C-alpha cells in the first residue's frame, strides 16, 4: 500500500526457513533436465515453490506484480546441488553438475515473476544463461568481463523498430553457484525511485527528454555489425509516472545528442553509485532484479579461468510473452530473434 509522502523500500531481504530449503531441495534433486520439456519443468518448479511459507511466497509474487514493491530482492538459504562441477570457461553451460537443483531454483523463482524467455543473440537463445568470466572478454562491458567495473545498465534487446527499451526482459533472476576464488564480486542495483529522489531537477528533466541513443548489446553488435555501433532511436533514459519511473540504460554505450544531456548522463552514473544497494552473492542465494524499475552494475573481481571462478545462472523473464510475439522464432515459442 502506498502511504503519501513515504518513500517505497527498494530492497528486500528474504530467507527460506531451513526446513523449507530441505523440502524444496529434496524435490529438485530428482528434477529431470528442464531442457527436455521446459514447460513441464516450469510447471513442476511452480508446484515445488508453492511450498514457500505464505508470507514469503506473497513477497515474491508482490515483487513481480506491484509498482510500489522493491526493485531488487535477495533470496537466501536456497537449496544447492550436491556437486556443482567446474565453472565453464567458455560462457556455455557447465558439465559435471550432479543434477538440476540450481536450474530448478532459477525456474521456480522466475515462474513466480513471469515467463522465462530466450533471445537468439544472447547465449544462443538458451533460457538459462551461465554468467561466468571468459578469457578475452575481461575488459568488455558484457557479462563476460571481470577486470572492469560493469557500469550501471539495463539488460536491453536490439529491436528492428529502433526501440531497445520495449522488448527487453521485465526481470532478471540470478542464482549463484560459486562466488569465485576471492568472493570479491559485488552486484549493485540502483532504483529509479531513489535515483530521481537524489538527482538535481535540471539533470532529471534532461534525462526525461528524448536526447539519448542506446547502443545495442555487445552480443548483438558483434554478431550483426562486426562490433560497430547499432544505435536506437533517440529515447529518454527515465520516463513514466513520477512515483513509479522506468529507467533504461544500455551497457554497451549511450550516445547523448548534446553536451548538456551528456553531462546529465554522467551525473546519473554518479547518482547510481550513491543510491545503490550492494550484494555479494554466495551459493544458495539468488537475486531478483526488476529490469524496468532500476539499473544494475557489477564490481571488478578476480578471475583465474581455471574452473573455480564465479558462476551465476540467469534467466530473462517477461510478465507475458504476448507483447513480443512479433519476435518469436518459428522453432521455439520461448525463443526470440
Ligand atoms: Fe546486466
TrEMBL record:
Cofactor(s) needed: Fe(2+)
Residue stretches making up the TauD/TfdA-like domain: 122-316
GO biological process, one term: antibiotic biosynthetic process
Binding site for Fe cation: 296
GO molecular function: iron ion binding; oxidoreductase activity
Keywords, alphabetical: Antibiotic biosynthesis, Iron, Metal-binding, Oxidoreductase
Similarity comment: family membership: Belongs to the clavaminate synthase family.
PANTHER family: GAMMA-BUTYROBETAINE HYDROXYLASE-RELATED, TAUD_TFDA-LIKE DOMAIN-CONTAINING PROTEIN
UniProt protein name: Oxygenase
Organism: Streptomyces roseus
Amino acid at each position: 500500500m502506498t502511504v503519501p509522502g513515504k518513500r517505497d523500500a527498494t530492497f528486500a531481504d528474504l530467507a527460506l526457513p531451513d526446513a523449507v530449503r530441505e523440502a524444496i531441495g529434496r524435490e529438485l534433486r530428482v528434477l529431470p533436465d528442464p531442457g527436455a520439456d521446459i514447460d513441464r519443468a516450469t510447471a513442476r518448479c511452480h508446484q515445488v515453490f508453492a511450498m514457500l511459507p505464505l508470507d514469503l511466497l506473497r513477497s515474491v509474487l508482490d515483487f513481480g506484480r506491484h509498482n510500489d514493491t522493491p526493485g531488487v530482492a535477495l533470496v537466501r538459504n536456497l537449496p544447492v546441488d550436491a556437486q556443482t562441477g567446474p565453472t565453464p570457461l567458455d560462457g556455455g553451460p557447465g558439465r559435471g553438475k550432479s543434477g538440476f537443483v540450481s536450474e530448478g531454483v532459477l525456474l521456480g523463482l522466475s515462474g513466480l515473476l513471469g515467463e522465462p524467455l530466450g533471445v537468439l543473440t544472447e547465449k544462443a537463445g538458451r533460457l538459462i544463461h551461465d554468467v561466468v568470466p571468459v578469457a578475452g572478454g575481461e575488459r568488455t562491458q558484457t557479462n563476460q568481463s571481470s577486470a572492469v567495473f560493469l557500469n550501471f545498465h539495463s539488460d536491453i534487446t536490439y529491436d528492428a523498430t529502433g526501440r531497445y527499451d520495449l522488448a527487453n526482459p521485465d526481470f532478471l533472476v540470478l542464482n549463484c553457484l560459486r562466488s569465485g576464488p576471492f568472493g570479491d564480486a559485488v552486484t549493485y542495483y540502483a532504483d529509479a525511485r531513489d535515483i530521481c529522489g537524489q538527482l538535481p531537477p535540471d539533470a532529471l528533466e534532461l534525462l526525461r527528454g528524448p536526447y539519448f541513443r542506446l547502443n545495442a548489446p555487445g552480443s548483438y553488435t558483434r554478431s550483426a555489425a562486426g562490433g560497430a555501433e547499432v544505435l536506437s532511436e533517440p529515447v529518454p533514459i527515465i520516463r513514466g509516472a513520477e512515483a513509479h519511473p522506468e529507467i533504461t540504460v544500455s551497457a554497451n554505450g549511450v550516445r547523448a545528442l548534446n553536451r548538456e544531456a551528456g553531462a546529465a548522463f554522467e551525473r546519473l552514473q554518479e547518482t547510481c553509485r550513491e543510491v545503490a544497494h550492494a550484494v555479494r552473492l554466495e551459493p544458495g542465494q539468488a537475486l531478483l532484479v526488476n529490469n524496468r524499475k532500476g539499473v544494475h552494475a557489477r564490481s571488478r573481481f578476480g578471475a583465474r579461468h581455471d574452473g573455480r571462478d564465479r558462476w551465476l545462472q540467469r534467466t530473462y523473464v517477461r510478465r507475458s510473452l504476448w507483447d513480443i510475439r512479433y519476435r518469436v522464432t518459428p522453432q521455439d515459442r520461448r525463443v526470440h530473434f
